[in-house]
């Protein structure tokens, strides 16, 4: 056995000498943040990222300007408690559909993560998308990585001042436009535009525009990778969704090591080197600043930038592509072909996620297709539980909240049953305007000796008709009729 002093130290905590009496020692508790300067890169995955940027922003900025009939196509009118999504008109009572949407989103995240890791983070997450846009603006004013580093290190000058100021102004304009577009989904965007131009906007509109603008400006302009590394919870629990058959960004260590610089004409085998030329470009293009050659790290967002730049380097030195690539741990360890890898990717876990996801999507779709164009909530009039009226009849009073989810006027025919002689003492025909919600008072009467004292179940039968007289839906709502002692 070797002597203790011959063994390498395995301590993870550096041992520092004890300060002399009277000396003050400052111990940092947090690692100092170092600014990351991501290098621009060209390649397949860079093109996919920009395609997702274009698609997501066309949807976000353009959808609020689309019209559907005489209204905004997508509008969440919180004041009127109506939510318009193209041909759908939803009420707070349709909260179940929001729940279904959240479940679908969660299962989709589980499915995509099980198949290919953090694809959402690398290509479609708003943080990634806006960081990519802000970085593009930064490059237009300050240049690529090396130019930005030189500019930041240079003393203040006119050139530096106008470049930094121009960049900040462009960021602010884009952030304000983003905040304005966001609020345009809750306040009709054309009305919002007119109110801003006339300086007649309300305090809540300006608050949320500034709030969302500040969030976009801070997250995409300054915090960037800090949001992904420290604020996003997905980075912490993603490992629970990964396994050895999940596609992740991997470095082929067996092929790449030992790494080292060499001339383009030299034979790496004769030099005892692997395919990695140790150019560190994979680190320079990484938006979170990690070295993928050290293995998978939770900071990796799966954007594929290192794959693109490594493939470019391999092309220049004449080596085979794929030193850094999307693959699985099992494929790397066992040397599988791409066909073998795909067969293992689509494993039972993935099929279960897919089946459950499609079942929920189909169920929600069928529910929306069969959804009645109106809703009725029945509330008993608490001021008058039951009373005897002229003619010796017993009367109960109800309040019906009728919500028309159709964009046309509906005529509702009311009928009741459940007790002998039960009849309506009010007008049986109710008209409700397009997307209107209204309360209607309804009185029901039964003969005095029609039922014993107590609570008796009854049903309201409601049938709706369009203006041309066609039946568009039927509902049956249960309530009770009280007979006093």
Note down, in words, how this protein is organized.
By secondary structure, the protein is of the alpha+beta class. The protein has three domains: 44-63 and 117-237, no CATH class; 243-335, no CATH class; 374-483, Immunoglobulin-like. The chain is built from 16 helices and 16 strands. It has helices spanning 44-63, 95-116, 119-124, 126-142, 145-153, 158-183, 189-197, 203-223, 225-231, 234-237, 253-256, 281-284, 305-317, 329-334, 338-345, 348-370, and strands at 67-68, 71-72, 74-77, 82-85, 88-90, 248-251, 324-327, 374-380, 387-389, 393-404, 410-417, 423-424, 429-432, 437-446, 454-465, 471-483. The strands form five sheets. Strands 8, 9, 10, 12 and 14 form a five-stranded antiparallel beta sheet that branches. A four-stranded antiparallel beta sheet has the order 13-11-15-16, with no helix packed on it. It has a three-stranded antiparallel beta sheet with strand order 3-4-5, with no helix packed on it. Helix 1 (44-63) crosses helix 4 (126-142) and helix 2 (95-116) runs antiparallel to helix 16. The protein is elongated. The model is unreliable at 1-16 (pLDDT under 50).
